[in-house]
Design a protein that fits this description.
With 93 residues, the chain is an alpha+beta fold. The chain is 62% helix and 15% strand. It has helices at 2-14, 17-28, 33-39, 45-57, 78-90; strands at residues 31-32, 61-66, 69-74. Strands 1-3-2 form a 3-stranded antiparallel sheet. A hairpin with a 2-residue loop joins strand 2 (61-66) and strand 3. The radius of gyration is 13 Å and the shape is globular. The protein starts with a helix and ends with a helix.
Length: 93
């Protein structure tokens, strides 16, 4: 049952289209907030930072501070499989 709770939480967090887009970009390579903002330009930098904080709080992302910039990367490798299944079933690419 505990596993079901974890899965449910993961799906809740990933059910936001902006967070899905952020994760898809970070699956390609780690990025700073500025780099991500170029890719997800429909969000303000403040909104982007809030989404990154949510993803990090749920241990989906990790971050590393380098001087003034923070680089985000995927921490939870299960996300790669989740996104792969979504792409296979819902993307026409």
């Amino acid at each position: 049952m505990e596993n079901m709770k974890d899965i449910s939480e993961l799906l809740k967090v990933m059910s936001n289209e902006n967070r899905l887009l952020i994760v898809c970009h970070l699956l390609q390579l780690p990025m700073t907030v500025s780099q991500l903002h170029e890719k997800v330009s429909n969000l303000t930098q403040s909104a982007l930072s809030q989404h990154l904080s949510i993803l990090k709080a749920h241990k989906i992302l990790d971050s590393q501070k380098n001087g003034l910039s923070i680089t985000y990367s995927i921490q939870d490798e299960r996300i790669r499989n989740v996104i792969k299944v979504l792409k296979e079933n819902y993307c026409q690419c």
